[in-house]
Each structure stands twice: as C-alpha cells, then as structure tokens.
Write a structure and sequence with these properties.
Layout: H1 11-55, H2 60-76, E1 83-90, E2 102-113, E3 124-135
Antiparallel strand pairs: 1-2, 2-3
Helix pairs in contact: 1-2
C-alpha cells in the first residue's frame, strides 16, 4: 500500500482563508443593516411623537416648541447616535378656520454615523422621516 505524501496538505487552511473573510463581511453587513433599521424606527417614532405633540397644542408657536422637544426626548431615549437632528414643523394648519380639516406635519432628519464599521468603509447615513397629525377641527386655535 502506497501513501501519497503532501496530496491534501494545506487544503483546509486555504478553505478557511477564503471563507472566513466572507463570513466576516456578511456579519458586518448584518450589523450595519440592524443599525440603519434601528435608526429608521427611532427617527420615525420621533417624527410621529412630534406631530402628535404639535397637533394637541393651542397655538402655532407652542406647537413648534412642543414638537422640537418631543424629537429631542424621543431621540434622546433611543439607542442611536444622532448628530444634530433637524426638525421642520409645518403649523400652517393653525390658520385654518374652525370646522375645516387642519394638520401639523413634521419632518425629522438625523445623521447616523456608521464609521465604526470600518470593514465596510461606510461613512454617515442621513435618515429622514415625515409624520402628520390632525388638529381637532372644532377646538379653538390661535
């Protein structure tokens, strides 16, 4: 019986050298997708809370202040890092006469850093969410 010498030597290490980087890249993509999904959810929740806070206010000025505070509170309690969120509050619904449909709309934009995922070479990603909440048509407005 003859034995082959060195026929399969190195096959396993070559397979590992090819497979492990691919698995690590896949893992990094999953982590990045999780961060982006979490950021999307947090920014959408902030926009929804802001629109609601604005729509239950009595005045347009109060609506803007409450909406901005709601965004700060909601994003502050989330697990995402948001570099200087921008909040655009549309309070033009407060000028509508009583009995007519009116609403408060809020657009929240947040830049989420992905630079900690060095493997993928990603920079920052800006997440934007919009929400609208109806103002009670028969409640007094100023």
């Amino acid at each position: 019986m003859r034995r082959r010498v060195g026929g399969d030597v190195g096959q396993l290490s070559l397979g590992v050298a090819i497979t492990v980087p691919g698995i690590l890249m896949l893992l990094a993509v999953v982590v990045m997708a999780g961060r982006v999904a979490g950021a999307n959810a947090a920014v959408q929740a902030a926009a929804t809370e802001a629109a609601r806070a604005g729509s239950i206010s009595r005045t347009a000025g109060e609506a803007k202040v409450r909406a901005e505070a709601a965004v700060a509170t909601t994003l502050g309690s989330s697990d995402i890092e948001c570099d200087s969120p921008t909040v655009d509050v549309d309070v033009s619904g407060f000028t509508a006469p009583l009995g007519q449909d009116a609403h408060v709309s809020v657009v929240v934009a947040c830049t989420v850093p992905l630079s900690t995922l060095v493997v993928l070479g990603q920079g920052d990603r800006t997440i934007t969410a919009t929400a609208t909440s109806v103002i009670d048509p028969y409640r007094s407005r100023q």
